[in-house]
Write a structure and sequence with these properties.
Layout (H helix, E strand, L loop, with lengths): L2 E5 L2 E4 L4 E8 L7 E7 L6 E7 L5 E3 L7 E6 L4 E6 L8 E8 L11 E2 L3 E6 L1
Length: 122
């Protein structure tokens, strides 16, 4: 019974900040990459940021570098995505996912949670 629960989305003005949380249950995360993905209407789902649970190595998409920070809390089995300087282009449904392949792409993920909506107004 693998579950990933994303939360923390909302409506924010351009330049504002949000923190997303992904709580995992039903499996151990030692060997997994945990990632944040987003999908805007009419667009493909894309990787935003991923982190290796084992060693903490992080990946950021070019659009996220310098603005977003991914982190993990082992005690809570939770991964966070701190998003600063948000832009209207960041508007999307954000999903958290877990996979055993070291790829920050949807194809590298085995488990998906339900998304949380992030809307950035201009």
């Amino acid at each position: 019974d693998v579950q990933l629960q994303a939360s923390g989305g909302g409506l924010v003005q351009a330049g504002g900040s949000l923190t997303l949380s992904c709580a995992a249950s039903g499996f151990t995360l030692d060997a997994y990459v945990i990632g944040w993905f987003r999908q805007a209407p009419g667009k493909e789902r894309e990787g935003v940021s991923c982190i290796s649970w084992l060693d903490g190595v992080a990946y950021y998409a070019d659009s996220a570098k310098g603005r977003f920070t991914i982190s993990s809390d082992n005690a809570k089995n939770t991964v966070y995505l701190q998003m600063n300087s948000l832009e209207p282009e960041d508007t999307a449904v954000y999903y958290c996912a877990a996979g055993l392949e070291r790829l920050c792409t949807p194809y590298g993920m085995d488990y998906w949670g339900k998304g949380t909506q992030v809307t950035v107004s201009s």
